[in-house]
Amino acid sequence: MNFQPTFFAHFSVALLTIYDMVKAIYRGMIIADIRLLEKSGVLNSTQI
How far apart are CA 38 and CA 24, in angstroms? Predict the structure, then answer.
C-alpha cells in the first residue's frame, strides 16, 4: 500500500473543508504549495 497519495488526498480534502469554513470570515485566504518536505520511516512496506 502506498501511503503518500492517500495521505495527500485526505490532507487536501481537510484543507478544503477548513478553507470553506474560514472563507466566510476572511476572503483573502489562499491554500498553496502543498508538498512533502521530508520522508522517513520503513523502506519496504509490509501488510499485516
Answer: 33
Q: What number of residues does the chain have?
A: 48
Q: What is the pLDDT of residues 19-38, one digit of tens each?
A: 888 888 888 878 777 776 77
Name the one residue in this structure whose C-alpha cell is 498553496: 32
CA dist 13 and 18 (Å) reads 9
Predicted model pTM: 0.51
Among residues 44, 16, 11, the alpha carbon closest in space to that of 30 is found at: 16
